[in-house]
Amino acid sequence: MSSKRSLPQTFVLAVITLLVFATNVFPQASKPKKVLMITDMEGVDGIFDEDLQCNPWKSPRWEESRKLLTGEANAAVEGLYQGGATDVVVLDGHWAGANLSVLDIDARARLLTGKVPRNFTLDPSYSALIFIGQHAMAGAKDGVLSHTESAEDIQNVWVNNLAVGEIGLNMFVAASFGVPTIMLSGDTAACREIRALEPKVECAEVKTGVSRNGGFMLSHPAACALIRETCRRAMQRLDEFKPYKISEPVEIKVEYTAVGTRVFTPREGVERLDDRTWVLRGKTFMEAWYKF
């Protein structure tokens, strides 16, 4: 038999050789790592009183609170980039998004502010979700300023019979787009809450509550240093995290307070259980979520 290779065989070998050479000589560009940071104010270090600190333009110490939030957000941005992030979007999530300013936010980040849709503009291009200044759910033991969505209106929320607060709800939104949650800063109760959903999550406990309106606080520089390092570590561990898996179809049950009781317009997938409780159903979490 002839030992000569055919022309097609020679061509294939040449292509393989070129691909191996190109891989070794020209390193492949790393995949972009885009992060959404959801901020809130009640979980920020030093915050303990809604009326005194959290109401934009009305609370006597709101300007101080805004500076505390900005400091924590910027520390998080720095840590994310140290850990390998390539794009950071900071969502101003307290009240109507009227707390952070482009004058003060880290120049490497983009600020998402104002009226934002319930999907937070998330899409599969994001690599991770983190929380900064996050509080625990309504009724959480020793949760500083704990509440869910609206402190006056909502008593409890369950997703597929699992009691959740804003932490879980926002995690599920992110998971709907294939995005894992990797980090949270807030009080001890908030960290305990997220670890029950994602044990691997990185947490920066910047304060520990002793009541709903009091607790032990770190200094602002110490809190920022902790957040910076926790974000850096979370990004370096990014490959370890997976989006939260929600069984489908999905049922969201909302129990309102006596003050927050309201009348829903009957529509497909919404059922009234009693004077204060409604059930929203959907084939997916987002389908049910959009009815909230």
Provide a brief overview of the structure:
The protein contains 7 helices and 12 strands.
Helix percent reads 25-40%
Percentage of residues in strands: 15-25%
Main beta sheet strand tally, sense and closure:
7 strands, mixed
Give the name of the CATH architecture of the domain at 34-141 and 165-240: 3-Layer(aba) Sandwich
The CATH class of the domain at 34-141 and 165-240 turns out to be Alpha Beta
The strand line-up of the biggest sheet is: 3-2-1-4-7-8-9
CATH superfamily of the domain at 34-141 and 165-240: Dipeptide transport protein
Average residue-wise pLDDT: 91
Query: Mind telling me the C-alpha Rg?
Result: 23 Å
Oligomer category: single chain
Q: How would you describe the shape?
A: globular
Low-confidence blocks of residues: none
Number of beta strands:
12
CATH topology of the domain at 34-141 and 165-240: Rossmann fold
The secondary-structure element order is HEHHEEEEEHEHEEHEEEH
Calculate the terminal CA-CA distance, rounded to whole Å: 75 Å
Number of helices: 7
Look at the helices and sheets and give the structural class.
alpha/beta
